[in-house]
Amino acid sequence: MSRQAGFTLIEVMVATMILGVIITAVLGPLTGMFGLTRKSMAQTDATSVAQATLEDVRGQWLNWGKYDAGCVTGDAFPATVTVSVQNLDTQLGLVGSATPLTRSTLAACLGSTGPRTDPAPTTSPALRRLTVTATVGGRPSTLVTEVAQSND
Hints:
Layout: H1 9-60, H2 64-69, E1 72-73, E2 81-88, E3 94-100, E4 103-104, E5 127-136, E6 139-148
Parallel strand pairs: 1-4
Antiparallel strand pairs: 2-3, 2-5, 5-6
């Protein structure tokens, strides 16, 4: 009886089992990182949507009439975005309660035809707190800023 070179069945089974344990140990954390990457991308996307909305409102409020009326024009905000406005006094104290902000037609925004040509109306708050919350992929992002009345 001659002995042939090669691996026994037991050796092959042990090697396969060791390889399986190593692959499981490597792939477990790797798939977890893919999940974190997806969550991180959704959070980044939500922050980008919120920032774009916030900058749009701030840009439109450079027009005195839109700021005074507390409105913005254009297409509706995305369904995943909520915007609220809180009037503030000059000491950053709250005046009244926060109200939701929605888009209006150009005609509905008073004074939406150009820059300020007269002094600021005394009825407009000097500051407004703008809160924008956007949700993408179940990940919310909230941005808050204070917007001052334009003197232009």
